[in-house]
DNA sequence: CGTATTACCTGACTAAAGTCAGGTAATGGA
DNA sequence: TCCATTACCTGACTTTAGTCAGGTAATACG
């Protein structure tokens, strides 16, 4: 463990908890229990499916039902059948509910403003920038990596977005039939593996590994969603795959890349890969790298 | 209001609330209500006076009493008379209580560590630095300024620390009798005023204003505690005093300062003061400034 | 010295938050 | 077609959190 950093994080938690408490208190000022206020807020002007509300707020189905009945009784919300599945229901704000929602919204704005207000112009800039950093990095910290079959629905989804991006970025375009010298079933243990990176459960990146021979692994399909770039996801996936390759008995990892993917090349160099001679006939590859494990 | 900044603050709040929620859940994992856990934690290895606990956690006296009885029943805490005032009582952890406390402490550490762990070394550095910034600036945002009598206990305390600092920093030392051309009763409305800056209720700075004649105000006793420097407290106090001076009918504000107080001089210049000729015979003054309101 | 105040305790209460075991209607799949 | 599953609802319940009105002993103050 890393003591001074942990101390800083804990002290940050305490400082921020107080602010959050202030927000909750201001929410209570409208004379409604926090649970109802939160639900009203979460339904929002667009409305929301009950299932979505339940999972987002982590509510028991019976409990949600009861709070909704109370909001309905107050004339703030109406719950109707959703066309499609007649079991599902959809909550919408009434006009009165929209007014209440706007009031809660204003309270949040006010609190945020009360934080900015006493600060100087430069203080405000620094605070907002630091908050953005914290948020970004907390997000990065909650990205998880999971090994899973390369033919799962989400894996396919990642791969589709990966190939889309190749088609956009390669000067020469990208034809999947021509470029794919490898089939997805090579990414299944023990011949290889497939890793998906997720942020709050939704996929934001993937990477694949296959054993070329007993002591050589190849990394392919390395992709990070634009929304998650700059958070170190790629290097985490790379290291994870290297560790797995080691377990598979690999002594060397190699990979190829297109000249258009500059940031990938600098990532590989940063992670200790060195450029080598062409080792395959991938028509889209311009650079070949390898690293001894 | 400042829209994009407010949006950033609100989004930060949401992101951080989730983390805090995770901490509270981990606290619940020890099978004890959050209220008891918090109290146990707050008592700490050193123990704590009941009054201090009540004010720190914002608990009703009856409620506190009940939670303490429950912790006593679990054998975690003992409450004894404090020597001195036989009405006050003091809570201490038993050996078993200390073990529990350490367990909660470990949970907090674990959560902090789980945030750091997935990040790269530079990511960790950036996160911790950004958290420190946010914490600092949130602190700055909660500094309040109050006008109050210059002879209150806390005002005297500020002034004592101010004079101490002068004695330390002036090359020629500082003798209060010689330096004080002004008495504290000149800082009472409508002849003048006295402002105290507080962070969480404790004084961290002061500044005084007195009217020299009907249209000229003088600023004196400008001091910021070392712990609160760099947060813009001085310029906030300065602006507040200028606004009050305006209300008093002042058209010009002037002040003097010693050559050793470099940061004060640059503050005055930054705030629009220009250096003028000597206007008093303060033996410790080396520079004189004024500003038209 | 008597009285007001303080520091804490007790008992009686309420509201909010959440859990659990069924129950109903719609839907999907064999 | 039948049966398991899903999406939601209802009623009965518990725990947690918190408030309020007294009450007691110690202390401060005029």
Outline the structure in words:
The structure is a homodimer of 293-residue chains. The first copy, chain A, has 293 residues and is α+β, with helices and mostly antiparallel strands. Chain A has two domains: 3-118, Winged helix-like DNA-binding domain superfamily/Winged helix DNA-binding domain (Arc Repressor Mutant, subunit A); 143-292, Aminopeptidase. Chain A contains ten helices and ten strands. In chain A, the strands form two sheets. A seven-stranded mixed sheet of chain A has the order 4-5-6-7-8-10-9, with helices on both faces. A three-stranded antiparallel sheet of chain A has the order 1-3-2. In chain A, β7 (216-224), α9 and β8 (252-257) form a beta-alpha-beta unit. Chain A is elongated and about 70 Å long. The relative contact order of chain A is 0.07. The interface between A and B is large, with 49 and 50 residues. Chain A binds a DNA duplex (30 and 30 nucleotides) through residues 33-35, 50-51, 54, 59-66, 69, 85-89.
Q: What is the topological layout?
A:
The structure is a homodimer of 293-residue chains.
Chain A: H1 3-28, H2 34-43, E1 48-49, H3 50-57, H4 61-73, E2 77-81, E3 89-93, H5 95-116, H6 121-141, E4 143-147, H7 153-169, H8 176-179, E5 192-199, E6 202-213, E7 216-224, H9 233-247, E8 252-257, H10 262-270, E9 274-276, E10 287-292
Parallel strand pairs in A: 7-8
Antiparallel strand pairs in A: 1-3, 2-3, 4-5, 5-6, 6-7, 8-10, 9-10
Helix pairs in contact in A: 1-5, 2-4
Chain A binds a DNA duplex (30 and 30 nucleotides) through helix 3 and helix 4.
